Amino acid sequence: MAETTDTAEDATVADAAALGGTRPQDPPLLVAATVGEVTAVWQVEVDARVLLGDFSGAWLVDGDGIRGFAADADWIPQRGDRDAVLRTLLAHPVLLAEGDDPLPVDGVDVIDLDATVSGIHDRVRRNHDDFAAAHPGKRQPAWGAADAIGYRTQDGPAPHGLTGDAATAVTRCLAAARGLRALVRDWNRVEKLRAQRLGGDLQALPVELA
C-alpha cells in the first residue's frame, strides 16, 4: 500500500490533558475513491485534543477482498463480500474523492465539502465576535482570516506496487485525504487557540452532510 501514516506535529499527551478533558476520542473521518471495481479508503483522525490531523488506516477493496491496515481484523467480517466490507469501513462520514465513479454502496454519510468549509468560516468569524465581546478593545488573537481556511486536494508520489484501477483509486483517494488532513490541521490550530483564549472544550472538525 502507499503512504498510510504521518507524524502528528506539535501535539503531545500534555496538550490533550490540558485542553481536552477525558471524553472519548472523536471518531475519524474517511475518504473514498472508486475506480471500476476498486475502492480505496483512507482514514483521517480529527481529534483536536491529540492530533493536528493524521492518517490512521488505509484499505483497498475489490472483488478479491480487502487489503491494507488490519485487513484481517475481527471487526471486518464477510471479507468475501465487497459491499459488506465497505459498509463496515465507511461507518463514519465520508469525503468522496474527485472522479466519475460513484461509491458502490448506499447508506453512507457523505460529507458536503462546500457546506463544511462555509461552516468553518462562520465559526472563525464567531471567534472574532466572541473575543471582541469578552475583551473589548483588546487585540484579537491570531485567528487568521476566516476564508483563509479551505480545502484543496494535494498531489503526492504515485503509489508503489499498484497498477490500473487500483493505482488510480489510491492516487485520487490520497490526494483528497491529504487535502482533508490539511483542513483538519487548520481547524485544530484555530480551535486550540479558541479554547485557550475563550475557554470551552475542544471540538473536532464540524462536518456538514450532503
TrEMBL record:
Disordered, as annotated region: 1-20
Source taxon at top rank: Bacteria
Biased composition, class Low complexity, residue ranges: 1-18
Name of the protein: N-acetylglucosamine-6-phosphate deacetylase
Origin species: Corynebacterium nuruki
High-level lineage: Bacteria, Bacillati, Actinomycetota, Actinomycetes, Mycobacteriales
